[in-house]
Each structure stands twice: as C-alpha cells, then as structure tokens.
Amino acid sequence: MRLRFLAAALASVSFTSLASATDLEVTHWWTSGGEAAAVAEFAKAFDATGNKWVDGAIAGGGNTARPVFISRITGGDPMGATQFNHGRQAEELVEAGLMRDFTELAEKEGWKNFIRPVSLLDGCTKDGKIYCVPINIHSWQWLWLSHKAFEDAGVPVPKNWDEFVAAAPALEKAGKTPLAIGGQPWQRTGVFNVLIPAIAGKDVFLKVYQDKDETVAAGPEIAKVFKAADDARRMAAKSNVQDWNQATNLVITGQAGGQIMGDWAQGEFQVAGQVAGKDYSCLPGLGVNELISVGGDAFYFPIMKDEAKAKAQEALASVMLSPATQVAFNLKKGSVPVRGDVDLAAANDCMKKGLDILAKDNTIPDPPRLNTEDTNNQLNDLFVAFFATPSMTPEEAQKRYAEIIANAD
Hints:
15 strands, D-Maltodextrin-Binding Protein, domain 2, 21 helices, alpha/beta, 2 domains, disordered N terminus, 4-stranded mixed β-sheet
C-alpha cells in the first residue's frame, strides 16, 4: 500500500512539473567557442527541469546586444531572462518596475550564505530587494602569452609587462603582432583599465573610478599609465581583428605574442586544446601587481504575466546557482563560481592563480560597477580615438580623460 501511495505521489509530482513546464527565451551575448560551450551547461541543466531553454544569443558583445535587450523589455516584448554584467546596467529597468524581485527565492535558498564576495549580491540589491542572479566572477587583469610566438622570436616568455614591452621588437622581427587587440570599443577601454592598477596601483585606481578624483586623473601616476597605453597602442598597430575571441585566436595560433583580456579567454584556449603553463602563460595584474577585478555576469528576469513562464524563471534562477551547474558552467567559461562552497579541483593553473588572489582578497571593483553607462561610453569613445589616432598624444588623451572623470556620475 505504501509503495502504491509513493508511486501515485511521484506521478502526481511529475504530472504537475510537466504541466507547468514551458519554453523560456534566454538572451545573452555569448557566441564564441568557449562561451557557447559554457552556456550549453546552463541550457542542459535547465532542460533537465522539464522546461526548455530557447537560446536568444546576439553576437557582437554587450555593446551590441544590450541595447536590443533593453529595447525589448521597455517595448513590451520581454524575454524570460537576460544577461547583463554586474553593475548598474539594469538599474533603470529595476527602478521602472520591469524586473522581478527574487528576494523570497534568495532567502529560501540562502543565497547570502554561499555567494561570495557579498558585493556581488549587493550589486543585485535595490532598496533591500534582490533583482538578479550573479552567476560568475570574471576579472579583466590578465596578460595571455603565446609560448609559440616567443619561441619563434627567440626570446623568453615574459614574466611581467616591462619584459613584454621589451620583447616587442623581437616579435615584430619574427613577423608577429606583439599585442592583439580587437576593434570593439570596450576592448580598448579594458586595456587601459587593466593598466591603471598594474602601473599606478590599486589606490590610484580607486581614487579615479570610485572617488571620481579629477586631480588624480590628471596627475603624474595616470600619466605613467598613458605612457604604457602608448606602448600598447604601438604594439597593437597591426592587430587587424574585430572581435575579442579573434584576438585570442591570434595568441592561440602563435601569430601574436600576447593579449590583455579577461579570464573568459581561458574558454578559447580550452576549446583549442591548449594547456596552461605549456602552450600559454597567464600573468594576473600583468605580472606587476597581482590583483584582479571582481566583475562578471548576472541574469535578470523581466516581469511576465504568464504563470508557467514565471515559475520557469524561478527554476532557471535556482538551477543557475546549483553547485553542479556552477562548476560545469564556470570551468568552461574560464570564470570563478560565485558559490564559495564548491569543489574546483579540476581548475587549471590560471584559474588557480585567480582563486588564490581572490582568497587573499587582492581585488578591485570592476569599473562598470562604479561608472554609469554614459561614463563608460565616453571612455570608450576616447580610447577608440586614442588607439586609432597615433597623432593624439598621451598628454592630450589624459586631459580629456580627466574631464570625463570630473563630470562622471
């Protein structure tokens, strides 16, 4: 009798689950090889709930995809869930009452007990309510180096930024592009933002972006950073690719010596079958100041009137933070899980470096978490012009930079 009762109960649960299951469109900008492999882990885990992940990827990165996502949400055609970066990108959507409040689910599952650093969950919180699901920790502060490129050039693999700059002539003589940078605006700004804490230090970085200190932005320490950016501009002069993963591929294939790019580049090395420490090296903080920024991605869930889709949103939010999914996704993405209670024994050498730095709390906030989108766009415009215009001096660029910081929100 008890077995029949249990079977009936299980059948009822299964029927209820299937009856409420539905398709849920999820939008994001993960389209490179490593990114696609990672997002497939989310889709697989969500599909296992009985619902169906409907992929809404838009190529071209956040600058291309984000305006489309926002337009759909504000225009009354919301997706079930959408990716944004940690920070203030969805702030106005939350303030307009267009995003779901997940406070109840977060309290039920104890998100505050395992999401680390706590600032990631704070970034999802508005007026005490939680509006997003942080899914990973990404850091920008990495220099990726091709062992093949330096071997072909007959010089040792650099151990820091100065050695990398010094090796540039040998790389050029061997027909290599010293520094690979794609043409997307955010890549140019990202390079500069990595150079700040590496060259000028953490305190200067925080005074500029956190305190919006115009005097520091116009001062001698940032002048050193613009000198380093001038070196980067010269080394990247023949980097004629557009997308970040195309630049990474130049490093993977030994056509370029290195790339300043976030740890998501690891996914591309992994898909290519390359091994950290053997085929490529990674220098956190450019081998100068070993710190990392704490940024990454989060998912927001627009309010939907359809009850089945609303329940599917909750299922997706829950599964994204499950231990198994966190490990599977982040190992392929190259990022670090937001859960502090998962086993990362399978992490490669570069990820272990990042985990060690994170454990020591040698971190800085990601600039998009400190700046408005308007400020970020102004910085993008400046660095597109700087990298594309050799006649623009570092002094001229720094003057404009200080003006942007002085007027930043």
